[in-house]
Write a structure and sequence with these properties.
alpha/beta, two-stranded antiparallel sheet, 11 strands
């Protein structure tokens, strides 16, 4: 399942319900591997097998896309080899790139890895700019997989535009507006407004409830909505001076100090239990988070959750992947055509409908399965409309090779402030010392 995808300790995601007919059980299905090996040469009749190696859940099996591709191309059979954990998948992938053997015809790349591959392994990939038009993706997505010379090593699959998931009933009990448009207006000025709303919630909060689940989750939303994050364009780590990091840290510290957070690490058993109990009023909510919330909150809270647009004028992105074609593959041309087809609007819309992974291809936003998509569990929130708008105002931030390490280390120290009472200055010092040991 998608949530098993982790990078440097980051829980990645599971799918979000894209249609009312998609069940939580289906959304949390574990990805199963089809048996398969490296592609063989074409047989006497010109039939070939293309292998796709990926991790977690890319949604192709759920959407029936490989079977459909075979119908369109009877001489091509596609076999998918799925590794549940991205942290297991990636080291093996690097080794295969280094040796030039064992690679699939198509390989998935996690967004947290793409910068490292762009900088150090670009020659190992076919240039997909000669196969697909990068302009079809939201701009910041295309840039993530493009070298300075313009070579594109990966075609965009899904993305994770962020919103705010909130409990309508708890807001009403606290004397706050519950309509999603009115709620969004309360923090239209940015994350500071979000904290102000949290203070208003706390003043009349139902007993035993908290405004947010985690200050570290909010921190990630703040940083991810800023164009200046952990690295500069010349590859220098700037996290100590980054405007986005400073803003995120200050707001997280304020949330802890004002006791607006329950102090739960997202996806942990206590976090899941809190959702079941109903003690969390808001969650910083990438597109794929809704399935987590609906699954662990259960039927009792169906219709009581809703989704509002993210704070501020820029949105944040959390997650996303790419499809690449290794240059030493046995069927580079055919693999490129498969990637082009899988990342086209119609196929990305099909994946969204089947598995809830939000498209990076802008053309998909105008297709009915995306444009009119709603979530029944979240009071019929128009997620297709919300996330399409968010996706196009996400800033084109610079990625760095150790983004995940930096983010996770800072998040750990925010958790320490919440759970252990660590003072902000001490937590920041501990974070920077640990990061510097890793990145040099």
């Amino acid at each position: 399942m998608r949530i098993t995808r982790t990078v440097a300790g980051r829980s990645r995601r599971t799918a979000v319900m894209a249609t009312t007919g998609l069940t939580a059980a289906a959304l949390l299905m574990t990805g199963c591997s089809d048996s398969g090996s490296d592609s063989d040469e074409a047989d006497a009749n010109g039939n070939i097998t293309l292998t796709v190696a990926d991790f977690g859940q890319f949604g192709y099996k759920e959407a029936g896309l490989f079977a459909k591709y075979h119908e369109l191309h009877p001489n091509i059979t596609v076999k998918e080899n799925v590794t549940a954990q991205e942290t297991v998948y990636y080291p093996k992938f690097l080794q295969q790139l280094n040796t030039g053997s064992g690679l699939a015809d198509v390989q998935g790349i996690e967004v947290g890895r793409v910068k490292e591959l762009v900088d150090t392994k670009a020659d190992a990939f076919a240039d997909l700019s000669k196969v697909v038009d990068p302009a079809q993706w939201v701009n910041w997505k295309a840039l993530q997989a493009t070298t300075e010379e313009g070579k594109v090593i990966g075609a965009g699959t899904d993305i994770g535009p962020m919103s705010i998931c909130y409990r309508r009933d708890l807001f009403e009990q606290a004397g706050l507006p519950s309509d999603r448009t009115e709620v969004a207006a309360k923090f239209a000025g940015g994350w500071k407004d979000y904290l102000a709303l949290g203070e208003a919630y706390k003043a009349k909060a139902p007993k035993g409830t908290f405004f947010m689940d985690s200050a570290s989750a909010m921190y990630n939303g703040v940083v991810s909505s800023d164009s200046e994050q952990y690295y500069s364009k010349d590859g220098k780590a700037i996290y100590k001076d980054s405007a986005g990091v400073k803003a995120g840290w200050q707001l997280a510290s304020q949330a802890v100090d004002k006791k607006l957070t329950q102090g739960l690490a997202q996806f942990s058993p206590p976090w899941q239990a809190a959702l079941r109990k109903g003690s969390i009023a808001t969650v910083a909510c990438p597109a794929w988070m809704a399935a987590q919330i609906s699954t662990y909150s259960g039927d009792e809270f169906k219709g009581k959750w809703d989704i509002a647009r993210t704070p501020g004028q820029t949105a944040a992105n959390w997650g996303g992947s790419f499809l690449s074609v290794p240059a030493k593959g046995k069927h580079v041309k055919e693999a490129g055509e498969l990637v082009k087809w899988l990342t086209a609007p119609e196929q990305q819309a099909a994946v969204f409908k089947a598995a809830g992974l939000f498209p990076s291809n802008k053309g998909a936003y105008e297709l009915p399965d995306v444009k009119t998509a709603k979530l029944e569990y979240f009071n019929n929130a128009p997620i297709g409309e919300i996330y399409a708008e968010e996706a196009q105002v996400i800033p084109a931030a610079v990625l760095g090779p150790k983004d995940g390490v930096i983010k996770d280390t800072i998040s750990t120290q925010i958790n320490n402030m919440e759970q252990r009472g660590t003072k902000p200055d001490d937590a920041w010092k501990a974070a920077t010392e640990a990061i510097d040991k890793v990145i040099g």
